[in-house]
Amino acid sequence: MAEAHQAVAFQFTVSPEGIDLQLSHAALKEVYLSGLRSWKKKFNQLRNSFVTGVYPASPSSWLFMVTAILVTQYSRLDPSMGMIGKIKEHLPVSDYLSDQGLTVLSALAFSTGLWLALIVTMRSILKMLLCYHGWIFEEHGKISNTTKIWLALVKIFAGRKPMLYSYQASLPRLPVPALKDTMQRFLESVRPLKTDAEFQRMAGLARDFERTLGPRLQWYLKLKSWWASNYVSDWWEEYVYLRSRGPLMVNSNYYGMDFIYVTPTPIQAARAGNLVYAMLLYRRKLTREEIKPNITPNSFIPLCAAQWERLFNTTRLPGVGKDTIQHLRDSKHIAVYHAGRFFRVWLYHNGRLMRPRELQAQFQMILDDPTPPLPGEEKLGALTAADRDPWARARQTYFRSGVNEQSLSIVEKAAFFVTLDTSEQGLQGPNPSQALDAYSKSLLHGRCCDRWFDKSFTLIVYRNGKSGINAEHSWADAPIVAHLWEYTIATDAFMLGYDANGNCKGDMDSSIPPPQKLQWDIPPECQQVILQSLSVALALANDIDFNAFPFKEFGKGLIKKCRTSPDSFIQLCLQLAHFRDKQKFCLTYEASMTRLFREGRTETAMMDPTQNDGTRLRLLRVAAEKHQNLYRHAMTGAGIDRHLFCLYVVSKYLGLDSPFLREVLSEPWRLSTSQTPIQQMELFDLQNHPDYVSFGGGFGPVDDDGYGVSYVIVGEDLINFHVSCKFSSKETVSVCQHIKEELLRSLGLILLFLLMKS
């Protein structure tokens, strides 16, 4: 309660002599600065909304338009073709203004209307231009004349100096694929996975669905696509994520890794200070919409930026049957976990961001604090790691009042969560490979109680200065968190830096109050629920096998010389490795972004490994081209998985049963894959500092009997892999080490055949 008393701006006592009012000038100053910052932020948001709202024009273009129209009023030209005169006749203030004043006001109204009409026209033209996707299907390096003209027009109508959300209103809506096309592509994709009899049965179900129930469901889906910004995203968020009742840990959350060959400082508090400060700089850029809009590689085609909105100040709240996402416009603190205790650290002092050196001091006070955890506090985070319904019921029962409600609110309303981990991670010890695997598992699940898996992301800083990030998946996809993480570690290493002793640079204000330790009153009944959740989470974590490794023999540079897409090459290697491991192919999931469309998230590129005979280059190139074509269709809204998923949701709303949809959507993804591209290469110098780049990130297996494979292509000569599976699976009993060996053989084997024939 001491912190609460410090925050009181005044005290008063009543005596026979009257009321004695005692003002705390320091507290009043803090209130004033906080309010000033809040008003500045509101003004900036209002300004940004206006600038974004009139894009691709600019406020200065309105002034130019008004000036040009006014100048014509003093010449014989009338660009309005009499409309200014008509406006002048019908102005309701004609009795109060002179003739010249009426002329100016009429010209102002006309020029403003003309300016708004031009904005709408330019935006509509840009939206129509962005509906063209022929460029994505053209061979790399060979651009048709049509695409060249189209690119020139896009560049003209895309405007100058866009802000983060400038293109949102110009992005086309995700189209609903034709039912016939989806059925055809689906049957093509599953043909190699089924026997003749199985395929004939599936084809019969598909034809029956296309002829009977499908058109009715398709009609409702088209109706939604006309009404909603995106016909997939809201249902995907709700039914795939928020209604899922299993643990977020491993099953949904994913992680990003630090540099693995270098550690900027071995001082834990200093590393945390710089990383948190870098994240706050990113948040400030995000609030001001100063982050450059994402564009497709090697072009200026904009991507949807909607997912950035909930990056900070966001928490997934558990509910019985369905979770909800809580997003705040601002948060002035972070929540910190260390050695079983929770703390609140303020982010502002005297109306400014805390400096790195001041944040380091805050974290060092937490590390030096000898206070033991309160009963039930140490393992409290396990509630967020296990099944959702028990956590929701515990939250309703034990965290709705008193100090528990206050402390939980502080955690959930924090800008983000920070774990000062008591372990050391990284390439260390006699077996660096095993150390890297342990590092991956620690970032994925930790001790199952030392992360807050509900937060949009948790920053993890280890005792030896290594770091990483664990992110919740429902609010956005991995590229958004990866963008933040790239900026954070690059800013930490190249812009902020450390002094000769490894401490954060800069000065500090010694009057800043210490972190606030959160208080809890957790009854024995709740402690029992916590222990049960921890038991579930530990069983899941101990069942995960992980293998993270760099592949340095060659990279995309050599692959591209063989005239093959690097992503297709890796996907074919994964198929070959899986076949060599299991002697069969499986349904494969590859995440493909659909952010060419408004509020787009991901789609699935289904693989077609037809007669994958590695000894024949022709079939290899056919398979690679097939993969590229499927991936391009998925990116341009013609994928299979999300369309079938939405048709299934409509059928459930209508209370209709479809044997075809039920069977299709129950098929397991035994091989779940995802590429994590480096989006901000300009932040890194791979020539002079090749070790200063993130190792990428990973996730758990989507299916209990499958593999999860994440890969990141770094520069021209490096590919990093993160492979996961479950020990308990009879299908993956060979564990990750075996699939790693098969993958390495496949990488070399396929490249060898390409080089032999090139």
Automatic annotation (TrEMBL):
GO molecular function: carnitine O-palmitoyltransferase activity
One cellular-component annotation, GO: mitochondrial outer membrane
Pathway annotation from the record: Lipid metabolism; fatty acid beta-oxidation
Reactions catalysed, as given in the entry: (R)-carnitine + hexadecanoyl-CoA = O-hexadecanoyl-(R)-carnitine + CoA
Mode of membrane association: Multi-pass membrane protein
Residues of the active site: H473
Keyword Acyltransferase assigned: yes
GO BP: any one term: fatty acid beta-oxidation
InterPro entries linked to this entry: Carn_acyl_trans (IPR000542), CAT-like_dom_sf (IPR023213), Cho/carn_acyl_trans (IPR039551), Cho/carn_acyl_trans_2 (IPR042231), CPT_N (IPR032476)
Compartments reported by the entry: Mitochondrion outer membrane
Domain of life, per lineage: Eukaryota
Protein's recorded name: carnitine O-palmitoyltransferase
Species per Swiss-Prot/TrEMBL record: Podarcis muralis
